[in-house]
Amino acid sequence: MRTKVLAGRVGRRAVHRRLVAVAWIVAVAVWGGGRATAQEAKVLKAGAAVVDVTPQKFPVSSAGSMGPRDAVGAHDPLTARCLMLDNGEQRIVIVIVDSCMIPREIFDAAKRRASRLAGIAEDHILAAATHTHTAVTVTPTFQSEVETEYCKFLTGKIAEAIVTASRRLQPAEIGWAVGNNPRQVFNRRWFMRPGFPLTDPFDAGTDRVRMNPPPAHPALLKPAGPIDPEVCVLAVRTTDGRPLALLANYSLHYVGGVPARMLSADYFGEFARQIASRLNATDGEGFVGIMSNGTSGDVNNINFFEGHPRREPFEQIRIVAADVADSAFAAYKRTPFEKWVPIRMKETEIELGVRKPTATEIERARRLLAEAGPGPYRDRRLIYARETLDLAVYPDTVRVKLQAIRIGGLGIVSSPCETFAETGLAIKKHSPLKPTFTIELANGYNGYLPTPEQHALGGYETWRAKSSYLAVDAEPKIRRTLLKLLREVAAE
């Protein structure tokens, strides 16, 4: 009898153990399946669009010079190029526009319209100008007159690019890499040998550097700042491997070589066509190539060390675009792609001081202009006298918009200024996200952004005007804020 009882107990224990094992297997399968389902539910979507923003009527005022300039035609289209990303948790937009600089009012209005039509938060849109010097004047700088009707047209087209990209959202893969091209970037601020005249439009006589000195001149001593040769690439492709969009970032002011009365997207537009060709795609037809401007406030395409040969119109643009496209393509070929990545974006505003003229400086400006009579002017002293009177009525402070984006391990920040290369390099060095790059002239226009050390050297980029009016301490404040935003998006 005792043997039967023990056998029964052993049998019940065995059954219990089997039931527990089965329950554990079922639980693991359900839990594991749930995890798999959750992972499978994470889908990255991307959409891209190109919208033509070339003016419909000519002549138009063209920005990029100290004097007034009218364009009678366009050599190639001006465009708004948009990339939208949606990982199911956050949706962000980057839109790059062929313009010299765009005021915040236009960007804000375009974002409001796009938010209403595409359902994207306004603070999740990064919108920037390329800085082609042969686009339509939409920001009052120097003696160029703003084209009011075109401003309305441009606002609608920027919004249209965002809305179109949102309608094209599709499952996608994403990746990023960094290329290198030191051949096309040169710091344009130079120390000169003693005896070389350094003049300024205020007759202050305090400049210690010269912007754009004569190339290969015997008086050239050394550049006053660094360059950033990185060609950063953010690439998006469809799930079957077809190129969908490529956003590049390079710290080059612009190239030039465009006839005086012609509009052009400069090398930014040519890069888009060149990179499409290398990817066996057609720009604007299922693929969108985008070149954004990095930190190029003190960098251009002139080889001051050795000089450069004379080129035909647009020749140098094609040479530069092809070379940078080669560098971007080399980076693209070693880009690992991911099916889903975390995306975070943060935006903030900070208040910055304005360098306003003194009463003595205002009086000098009035006297010079009264003696000269009505403009337009060619004399820099008169041009800056007019700028002085314009800045006299500026507010004491301005608010600027700053942003940081995390896309997987990639960081992107925005600056509304013509930012110096050393600022971009400092942000890259101290950013918690590797790589990181800066898109300048974003979400508004607040002029040049020299470091305090560069302010002390003087030179064109520091001369007080609507193109350079922020307080000397603006750069450290902007840099600190951008790094803070990067730390925040990296930690989420």
Let me know the number of strands: 23
Q: Spatial order of the strands in the main sheet? A: 7-6-5-1-8-13-14-16
Any low-confidence stretches, pLDDT <50, length ≥5? 1-39
Average pLDDT number: 93
Into how many domains do the coordinates divide?
2
SS field, number of helical segments: 10
- The whole-angstrom Rg is 27 Å
Q: Helical proportion? A: 25-40%
Question: For the report, how would you describe the main beta sheet?
Answer: 8 strands, mixed
Shape: globular
How far the N terminus sits from the C terminus, by CA atoms, comes to: 67 Å
The amount of beta strand, in percent, is: 15-25%
> Class by helix and strand content?
alpha+beta
Please give a structural write-up.
The protein is of the alpha+beta class. It folds into two domains: about 400 residues, no CATH class; about 35 residues, no CATH class. Helices cover about 35% and strands about 25% of the residues. The chain has an eight-stranded mixed β-sheet. Strand 6, helix 2 and strand 7 form a beta-alpha-beta unit. Helix 6 packs across helix 7 and helix 8 packs parallel to helix 10. It is globular.
